[in-house]
Amino acid sequence: MVFLNIPLFVRARGPDEFWRKRRIFKLAAHYRSRTRNVYSFAIRSVHRALAYATKGRKLKKLDMAQLWTTRVEAGCQQYGVGLETFKEGLTRTSILLNRKMLSDLAIWEPRSFEALVKISRERSAVEGFPDIKQRSAFNQVYGLRNLKLD
Amino acid sequence: MSFLAHTMRQVLRQAPTRTSTLTGAMRCLSLAPALWQQNKPAAAAVAPIEVAAVAKDQQKECLSICERVNQQVAKQEQGRLFAVVHLCGKQFKITAGDIILVEGYWPPTTGDEISLDKVLLAGARDFTLIGRPILEPGLVTVKATVVEKTLTHTKTHFKKKRRKQYMRINFQRSPNTMIRINTIEVARPVDGNAEAEQEPSKRLF
Q: Global pTM?
């Protein structure tokens, strides 16, 4: 490819056709039917796939966050405490574990998680959260605002 | 129907017993004073004599929990410890022998021995130490080694708008660091009344 003048330079676009197409076909190798073998179909689906992959990297993080939230919620609901109450109780006790950790603890360290729920529960009872109806042991002992409850 | 009612009653009965096991269980907020509610004024409505008596019991209970934890640690019966550490803006649940991955730029180089100081929570078979928000420095030591520094696989950042002659493609690789956790140990006895007094300047990671 010799670029003697500008028009020739414009006509010679990119690498050779074979190599240009091979790059796309390599990415499309595992597709089915004509998207694997026909270039015009292959490039369309490869472009779409790459765009999905780019978006998917962000979505994966959001999905995981959602999953952790669900798990923590399920974990604290088995002790009769709502998620918001649980988190608020922990925060006011300045325990700053994130949801990923809480869900991990709920699954793999159920007794630690139970302790956390209890701590949070005591705190919310002391602070007089509306969700906590039941009097707790500490509340009866120190008699804090327990008149408000039940 | 009677069966349903029976189970419901059982469930209801379980709820209060769960609460009462808080004091019985060894697991409690054993580091910072478990009785942080102590300082708050007691309402006069509840019989005052009882309050004082039960409060003392609670205090004893707390001390005995710390003692039991210390005894277990002294006898090496606590088993394998796990810890939740805060590292590079993320929290990791780790135990000895684990490899964790730090994503992005992080200065330590291969072979560095580091100690992870921000321990949010440490636990064993029978007890859990919960930090508010972190355990006091030197209570639980987590030693780690930087094993490997590499780059991620090539991520293709591709954007395209149909029929608009718009297409962008970029390739990126970001640094990754592998850290192996060597040991997690309870370094000194747990005492129930120590308030965390730490120097933040010493904590780097």
A: 0.70
Residue of B45, B121, B131 with shortest CB distance to A147: B45
**B160 and A51: CB-CB below 8 Å?**
yes
**What are B158's strand-pairing partners?**
B169
Contact (Cβ atoms closer than 8 angstroms) between residue A96 and residue A127: no
**pLDDT tens track for A7-19:** 777 766 667 889 9
Q: How far apart are CA B180 and CA A31, in angstroms?
A: 39
Q: What are phi and psi for residue B144, nearest 5 degrees?
A: -145, 160
B155 in contact with A, Cβ within 8 Å: yes
- What is the distance between the alpha carbons of residues A49 and A137, in angstroms, rounded to a whole number? 57
How far apart are the C-alpha atoms of A125 and A135, rounded to whole Å?
7
Find out whether B133 and A96 touch, Cβ atoms under 8 Å. yes
**Residue in B with minimal Cα distance to A124:** B37
Query: What CA–CA distance (Å, rounded) separates B138 from B194?
Result: 13
CA B194 to chain CA centroid, nearest Å? 18
Render pLDDT for B25-80 as a digit per residue (tens, 0 to 9): 344 443 444 344 343 333 333 333 444 555 566 666 667 777 888 888 888 888 88
Tell me, yes or no, if B14 comes closer than 8 A to chain A by beta carbon: no
- What domains, with CATH codes, occur in chain A? 14-58 (no CATH), 59-142 (1.10.1900.20)
Q: How many residues does chain A have?
A: 150
Distance from the Cα of residue A24 to its chain's centroid: 31
CA angle centred on A16, ends A13 and A18, rounded to 5°: 135
pLDDT 10s digits, A62-75 = 999 999 999 999 99
Q: Which residue in chain A is spatially nearest to B89 when comparing CA positions?
A: A98
- HEC string of B137-149? CCCEEEEEEEEEE
Per-domain residue ranges for chain B?
Answer: 2-33+48-74, 82-190
